Formate dehydrogenase subunit delta (Rhodopseudomonas rhenobacensis), 64 residues
Amino acid sequence: MANQIGTFFRSQGPDMAVAGTAEHIRKFWDPRMRQAILKHLEAGGAGLDPQVRDAVEALRPPPS
């Protein structure tokens, strides 16, 4: 699903694709879904498109 969102935003250029994908996930995904994609990224992020990977990385909370 994240890759499909990324594909939608890809036509807006790389920077907007990353920002748009991250914003969409932040606004519209249930917190459990966001946690699941972050865990998937931590486990290697297999199958994520590069710009989607960057968008998910942007969702990570800052280190404490």
